[in-house]
Each structure stands twice: as structure tokens, then as C-alpha cells.
Amino acid sequence: MTSNIQTMKAEIMLALDILPAERLDILLEFISFLRNGRVKKPALLLKELTAWQETLYLLSNPANAEHLRQSIMEAESGEVMARTLVE
Q1: How many CB atoms lie within 10 A of CB 29?
Q2: Helical H runs in 19-86?
Q3: How far is CA 1 from CA 7, 50, 87, in A?
Q4: DSSP symbol at 21
Q5: Following CA atoms 49, 21, 77, 65 in sequence, which dihedral angle do they give, to the nearest 10 degrees?
Q6: 33, 39 contact by CB (below 8 A)
Q7: Span 24-74, pLDDT tens digits
């Protein structure tokens, strides 16, 4: 059990090391919510949690998840095409 906790702490620390600075606000809001049930910026936290739910939904279909992973790999390797967004 202790080994699992130590491994989990190490993984969390690694994740925090690579967390973009602009995401720290959201992490702090989430920690505040977990500690005392209150947040300073509820709209920010709600927006982030909604995005997580959407991501989980998209990844729940194996074929869709694979397509998204492939798209991410292409984008990271520079295989992107600029497009104009239509609103």
C-alpha cells in the first residue's frame, strides 16, 4: 500500500512539473473545492469540468479515440493545415 501511495505521489509531482502555467488557476480552484467546497471562480471550474466531460465522451468510443490520438500525433509533428473557422 505504501508503495502505491509513493508511486502516486511521484506521478502527481511529475504531472505538476509539466503542467502549463496557465492551467495552475484551474488546479488551485479544484483544490479549493476539494478542501472546503468553495471556489473563487466557479465559472472557470465549471468550464474546465465541462471540457473534461466532453473529452471523456469523445474518448469513450475506441474508433473515435484512435482518430483523435492520430490527429494529435499529426499536429505535434507539424502536419497541420490552417483553416478558417465558420461560426
Answers
A1: 20
A2: 24-36, 42-59, 62-76
A3: 10, 33, 51
A4: G
A5: -10
A6: yes
A7: 777 888 888 888 888 788 887 788 888 888 888 988 999 999 998 899 899
**Residue 43 near residue 26 (C-beta atoms within 8 A):** no
Question: What is the chain's length?
Answer: 87
Rounded distance between C-alpha atoms, residue 53 and residue 59, angstroms: 10
CA 51 from chain center: how many Å? 8
Residue located via cell numbers 478542501? 35
Contacts of 30 (CB under 8 A, 6+ apart): 45, 48
Residue for cell digits 474546465? 48
